[in-house]
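Practice problem: predict the structure.
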Amino acid sequence: MSHLVSNAATDKISPTLPLTTDQKRLVDQILAFTTAHVNETGPAVFTVYGDAGTGKSVILAHLFNQLQTASRTRPDSPLAKTTNYFLVNHPEILKVYREIAGKEPHLLKKDFQRPTSLINQLAKGITTADVLVIDEAHLLLSQPDHYNNFYGENQLSSLLAAAKVIILVFDETQVLRMKSFWTEKRLEHLLAHYPHQHVRLTHQFRMQASDELVAWINDFTHSQVRPLPQSVGAQYDLRIFNDAEQMRRAIVTKNNQVGLSRVVSTSGYPSTLDGGKHYITEGHFHLPWDQYNYTSTPWAELPQTIDEVGSIYTCQGFDLNYVGLILGPPLTLSPQNQLEVHLDRYTDVEAFKRRADITDAQELTAIKKQLILNSVNVLMKRGVKGLYIYAHDAHLRQYLGAKAH
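Answer:
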């Protein structure tokens, strides 16, 4: 699949994008499932599994556009006058979908909601829900979060109690926080008693990288460090840097050429959402972390963010053209070339909130380490055209075959 250079995140998941034959067939399959169950007492669930970059969001965008078009313009459809919502528990992605809604005749900005907002509206009887489409369902809260006004036990359970049909996409390798801790096994256990279908997407659409490089990333983010593959893709630019500032300059050059190119980092540096600036310093490299983005424009589309460092919270779900990734202090390589994850060096305090249902210390440690590796997986798969890497740990840089760029 060819990629056009674009400076707008909306162009990456617009319902006007052409679908492949297989993608169109899947949209039709989900629509048939939806119409078969929408007049039942419900709920019925359709799950789309797939790694980052396998086209999950563009499928949902097409699907929801067709749902709302049928609801609002086709009185003879089983979907006529149904009340449907598109949910995503990620403020930056929500901005993109609402921007898309402003361009489509049968989509309204209010159709797109955060799960907590809709759950609270449903509980108060302000609205009802027939069909719910959930993007990034691995971000749904799976325990109470009173700070964010969610008082239930599990957001998906709350939504199942209200809707007739739920369509969701899920990737357990993008689970990033304990309060939204999921696995495929936990999801399947919750859905076992409902009418349910699922499909698994495997083809990589985002990255113009070779299958070998995608497999290398998947192995790396499961603690299996191997030498980089010889073949990374004829149209893909992979570089390992000895110097973070040199990497930043290379990303700036790419941003000037094609746009949507940014430096991002794992946690492990000073970071507090207190309104002040907190910096990442690596030698001559010295830039502030992104803070909460209060504008309606996605972080990566703001011109000034070329002078910031992005995180999983601003970049998850987004396509960048080129991404420069800093692997921070929590990730080191042992003398035996084993990847080590240091929980005490992770500075994202929100990630590891306590869970009453996970009490085994060994299991808890393993989960926390995998959450950190999941964040690496998310960030490594942002770039359509290229991935640049700088590792804080000198041995890891050396092992990855760093050349002077």
